[in-house]
Amino acid sequence: MAKGLNQVQLLGNLGQDPELRFTQGGAAVLRLSIATSESYKDKETNKWEEHTEWHSAVVWGKRAEGLAKIVSKGTRLHISGALRTSSWEKDGVKHYRTEIKVRDVILCDGKRQGSERSAAPTPPAARPPQQDDGSLDDDDIPF
């Protein structure tokens, strides 16, 4: 039995272009800033308000390199992964960072960097008409 569950899922938009870097060992690291928004009704003003939350996420390895080529600011993503907290000390002050270590990514808007979508959808390929030769009767079906 598992002792705990560390799972995060977000559906949001990139707030800035992703930042691709490489470790000293050559591993690719892609940093993402993802915005999620929620609407709520303010009880005092009776108006709908929107709250945006910003999330830091990191993608590693070949997936990071590939993703960096196809996403940009505004791209809608669904990510899933686990929360990770790291700490370091700088000038005698301890700093902390909590981010999502991404396991899976789904592009939700079909947006590709450097390409434009056509204004009109492409029609599906035409199928040749099916001809019924009458060789199968409904009584022949065993259910």
Structural overview:
By secondary structure, the chain is mainly beta. 7% of the residues lie in helices and 48% in strands. The protein has one helix at 61-70; strands spanning 8-14, 19-22, 28-41, 48-60, 76-90, 93-107. It has one domain: Nucleic acid-binding proteins (OB fold (Dihydrolipoamide Acetyltransferase, E2P), Beta Barrel). A five-stranded mixed β-barrel has the order 1-3-4-6-5. The protein is globular. A hairpin with a 5-residue loop joins strand 2 and strand 3 (28-41). GO terms for molecular function: single-stranded DNA binding. InterPro entries: NA-bd_OB-fold, Primosome_PriB/ssb, ssDNA-bd. Pfam families: SSB (PF00436). This is Single-stranded DNA-binding protein.
Please give the structural blueprint.
Layout: E1 8-14, E2 19-22, E3 28-41, E4 48-60, H1 61-70, E5 76-90, E6 93-107
Parallel strand pairs: 4-6
Antiparallel strand pairs: 1-3, 1-5, 2-3, 3-4, 5-6
GO molecular function, one term: single-stranded DNA binding
Pfam family, one: SSB
InterPro entries: NA-bd_OB-fold, Primosome_PriB/ssb, ssDNA-bd
